[in-house]
């Protein structure tokens, strides 16, 4: 049950990310997030959030299907604690 609760807490973050990538939440890939990250010329909070998502999904816990299945949505909302 804990796994399901953790997934539910990340739904708003993944939904927002998918909307920015113009795709469905389950179809967000690394290239789309990379393009969003590089488009942020100011390298502000959004850049940092996207960098952490890429770090998690590429190096820490990669998915077998190649799509981003981020579990850190609630963490990246508070960048001061990262």
Average pLDDT reading: 79
Q: Can you tell me the overall shape? A: globular
User: What structural category characterises the helix and strand content?
Assistant: mainly alpha
The biggest sheet, with number of strands, parallel, antiparallel or mixed sense and barrel status, is:
none
- Which value, in Å, is the CA radius of gyration? 12 Å
Helix content: 55-70%
Number of helices: 4
Q: In whole angstroms, how far apart are the ends?
A: 26 Å
Which consecutive residue ranges, at least 5 long each, have pLDDT under 50?
none
The proportion of residues in beta strands is: under 5%
Number of domains: 1
Compute the number of strand runs. Answer: 0
Which series of helices and strands comes N to C?
Answer: HHHH
Q: Any key phrases for this structure?
A:
82 residues; mainly alpha; 4 helices
Give an overview of the whole structure:
The protein is mostly helical. The protein has one domain (2-81). The protein has 4 helices and no strands. It has helices at residues 2-21, 30-39, 45-60, 73-76. α2 packs antiparallel against α3 (45-60). The relative contact order is 0.18.
Write the layout of secondary structure elements.
Elements: H1 2-21, H2 30-39, H3 45-60, H4 73-76
What's this entry about, in short?
The chain is mainly alpha-helical. It is 61% helix and 0% strand. It contains four helices and no strands.
């Amino acid at each position: 049950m804990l796994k399901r609760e953790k997934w539910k807490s990340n739904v708003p973050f993944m939904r927002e990310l998918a909307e920015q990538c113009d795709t469905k939440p389950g179809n967000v890939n690394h290239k789309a997030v990379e393009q969003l990250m590089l488009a942020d010329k100011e390298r502000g909070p959004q850049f940092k959030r996207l960098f952490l998502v890429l770090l998690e999904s590429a190096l820490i816990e990669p998915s077998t299907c190649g799509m981003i299945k981020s579990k850190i949505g609630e963490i990246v909302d508070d960048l001061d604690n990262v």
